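for the recovery benchmark. tokens below, seq after
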């Protein structure tokens, strides 16, 4: 994944291959990459092990396209860095914040430890539900944009 700056917004750019066109867009497979591929802690890193395990399965994303795309087309996709940061905050911050808030509230009410743990889990589940609702409502905001089509050689 590389980053480019377009005007004032920074875009994260990745290449993918069209696997299934549909009216107005296509499904694109993008290879997964480890964010810490150059790290020196190669042997003891769980993130690296997870990245290697997931690398065998490409990620599928839907894109909008004004022009028709064909199976096998190589495309450049861009996603604003701000959208990635916002998505991370929603995905991690909301469930964890509600989980901690639930546990702290239960503790403040001097409930027993099992009930504090249950309040933590309840906050986590509520955060997951709100996250799912947010993603459904704002899915287009987190969808990669088609930047260029680099038709396959041949």
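predicted aa per position
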């Amino acid at each position: 994944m590389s980053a480019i700056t377009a005007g004032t917004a920074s875009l994260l750019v990745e290449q993918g291959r069209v696997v299934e066109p549909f009216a107005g867009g296509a499904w694109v497979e993008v290879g997964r990459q480890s964010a810490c591929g150059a790290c020196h802690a190669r042997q003891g890193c769980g993130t690296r092990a997870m990245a290697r395990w997931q690398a065998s399965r490409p990620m599928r994303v839907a894109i909008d396209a004004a022009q028709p795309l064909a199976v096998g087309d190589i495309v450049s996709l861009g996603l604003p860095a701000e959208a990635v940061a916002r998505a991370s905050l929603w995905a991690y911050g909301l469930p964890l914040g509600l989980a901690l808030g639930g546990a702290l509230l239960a503790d403040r009410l001097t409930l027993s430890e099992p009930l504090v743990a249950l309040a933590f889990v309840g906050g986590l589940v509520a955060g997951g539900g709100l996250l799912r609702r947010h993603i459904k409502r704002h899915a287009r905001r987190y969808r990669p944009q088609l930047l260029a089509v680099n038709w396959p050689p041949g």
